[in-house]
């Protein structure tokens, strides 16, 4: 975008995200203005208002900058796709997992520089039933973890809130029986946790699968078979880095379409930390759905 043409951007800031209310943006916004990027700023009261603001302005906008965490950015996925507008991210949340998948450090100055540099990448979008997601959708333990993660807990504990929530969720998790179709191949399994990833990172820097990227046109699935808390804890380091494939207590797959039913019992599904739908669930991926302002995506790199 640098030295090319004038650019009009809408900046949607979620004041409820961890750093959304306090972040100092004036210097960065002045740098955008110097670079020819005119920014209209909107303090979002909720996802519906933010989405409507984009729809109302879609013909005059060149870019939507979203300042918030994964919940906020995910809430804008559908409208960005529908309006075919590029996304830039100001990582103002707690986990900022999409920012990690895009190779952004979490530093605000750097995020503004990335916008000014204007380098673009195309990334995939996950779909579960009629909902879009960037990072990961969960059934089971992951749902219990995000139920423990209230906005207050996140504000107080920061990234450590994910660890705190994990231990609290362990006491509440029950096993589920699932029938799955993975690119047409059928499986029946018992599970305490299923994660279906479009992006690479979730839950504050966990890797869904070391082989996955947000632009590979695939979903990565892992499912944890029922196991003791001790076994689960021994698995934790492998799950943290997405290296769980060879463990017999984990089922892994990569696919473009995944269907999950859980009999007569419906199971809640959370995506990017927000409750979105329930089983029966149909998962798919839209390849190269959204353009984002980001440096070239590194090959399977796991930043510190
Ligand atoms: N577009 C939006 N505008 C206003 N509020 C939103 C929007 N999208 C989501 N929210 C609400 O704001 C809450 C916090 O936002 P978000 O999840 O982005 O920040 P966070 O919890 O600090 O970060 P992270 O998801 O990266 O851990 C969400 O749980 C949701 O209730």
Care to describe what's here?
By secondary structure, the chain is α+β, with helices and mostly antiparallel strands. It is globular, with a radius of gyration of 19 Å. Helix 1 packs parallel to helix 6 (108-117) and helix 7 (141-148) packs across helix 9 (161-170). It has two domains: 7-118, Probable inorganic polyphosphate/atp-NAD kinase, domain 1 (Rossmann fold); 131-288, Tumour Suppressor Smad4 (Sandwich), CATH 2.60.200.40. The strands form four sheets. It has a six-stranded antiparallel β-sheet with strand order 6-5-18-15-8-9. Strands 14-13-10-7-16-17 form a six-stranded antiparallel β-sheet. A four-stranded parallel β-sheet has the order 2-1-3-4. 28% of the residues lie in helices and 34% in strands. The model has no long low-confidence stretch (mean pLDDT 92). Adenosine-5'-triphosphate binds at residues 14, 16-18, 44, 46-47, 50, 68-72, 75, 93-96, 151, 154, 273. The site of adenosine-5'-triphosphate has 21 residues, from helix 2, helix 3 and helix 8.
